[in-house]
Amino acid sequence: QDNSFEQFIINYCNEKLQQIFIELTLKEEQEEYIREGIEWTHIEYFNNAIICDLIENNQTGILAMLDEECLRPGTVTDDTFLEKLNQVCATHQHFESRMSKCSRFLNDTSLPHSCFRIQHYAGKVMYQVEGFVDKNNDLLYRDLSQAMWKASHSLIKALFPEGNPAKINLKRPPTAGSQFKASVATLMKNLQTKNPNYIRCIKPNDKKAAHIFNEALVCHQIRYLGLLENVRVRRAGYAFRQPYEPCLERYKMLCKQTWPHWRGPARAGVEVLFNELGIPEEEFSFGRSKIFIRNPRTLFKLEDLRKQRLEDLATLIAKIYRGWKCRTRFLLMKKCQIVIASWYRRYA
Fold first, then answer.
1. How distant, in Å, are the alpha carbons of 66, 67, 170, 180, 203 from that of 141?
2. Positive or negative, the Cα torsion across 142, 143, 144, 147?
3. Domains of the chain by range and CATH?
4. Which of 167, 293, 314, 335 could form a disulfide with 240 if both were Cys (CB 3.0 to 4.6 A apart)?
5. Which residue blocks in 244-295 are alpha helix, DSSP H?
6. If 0-12 CB within 10 Å is exposed, 13-18 middle and 19+ buried, where does residue 22 land?
7. How many other β-carbons are positioned within 10 Å of the β-carbon of residue 14?
8. Closest to 238 measured CA to CA, from 298, 181, 321, 279
9. String of b and e for 95-133 (b: at least 16 CB within 10 Å)?
10. Are 15 and 52 in contact (CB under 8 A)?
């Protein structure tokens, strides 16, 4: 119920993960249709980049304001930090406090003076500013690190590498917020170089019990996980897409004109294949480099036809092999019979 600095940076990490989820699913999904020249009506979705900017902007972000308060001379308290936020973030539509312009007209008496509220993508969260400044300061002083590095125990020495005199740095240690922000940036850079698959876990109830389904809880999780926008984009778009070459290679056996070899462009072969199978035109679209199939049942139909065709081909191969084997055995027996008969007639 009482959210402090720890929950704030955790929610910041969740915002960044949601942002990369949006970039790699919703945004990339729709941009691919545009790149491929597919007729497409853009679907609006909430982009939480504005919330990430509110937290991590180098000049006006909440973490930047917190670092500025921790590093500046003079009397610094959590209240002075909140005052600075009220000045810098007063007009931001996702920031609220008792003194900011956003809530001045709301008459929100449920928001205490020592708190601020951020409207995250998953909903509004209220944070207590008490302890923000102290928790953001790195209280591991340089002389303590140097003393621990001189310990004879190898594990303790390894835990404090910054105490090594050869690596001594006279700069002030970075704040906890700065370290966490850099760590999140490294994580995002790493994720963007990969091809991630998302698994969304939904709790059916808060009791961790079987056979209990809380509909309100499930709906809330679906909303804040961004699944509604994802489903809207997926339903309006195409369930399956594949480059022409592997598509033709996989399904060419279903058409006499493309089997066993197609002597032309892969796209033309796919067009011939789909026309031969009689697939309705509204079920697929031809992109610049890919075939797009709208409904999963069309893909299932192709797979069923391919499975049946493979069985037919296997039966054909087995039939031809058995025929060849029988003919070979018959010819060998016939040859042996002629030899035996000729020798028999010679001595008869």
1. 20, 17, 11, 18, 43
2. positive
3. 5-138+174-193 (1.20.58.530), 141-166 (no CATH), 241-347 (3.30.70.1590)
4. 293
5. 244-251, 266-277
6. buried
7. 15
8. 298
9. bbbbebebbeeeeeeebeeebbbbbbbbeeebbbbbebb
10. yes
| Digitized pLDDT (tens) for each residue of the chain, 348 residues in all | 788 889 999 999 988 888 888 777 777 777 777 888 877 766 677 778 889 889 988 888 889 888 888 877 777 788 888 888 888 887 888 888 876 655 454 555 667 778 888 888 878 888 988 888 888 886 666 777 778 888 888 888 888 777 777 766 666 677 888 888 889 999 988 888 877 777 888 899 988 888 899 999 998 888 777 777 777 777 777 778 889 899 888 888 888 888 888 888 888 888 888 888 888 888 888 888 888 888 888 888 889 999 999 999 899 999 999 999 999 999 999 999 999 999 988 887
Cα–Cα distances in angstroms (integers) from residue 272 to residues 53, 248, 282, 287, 309, in the given order? 50, 10, 16, 15, 18
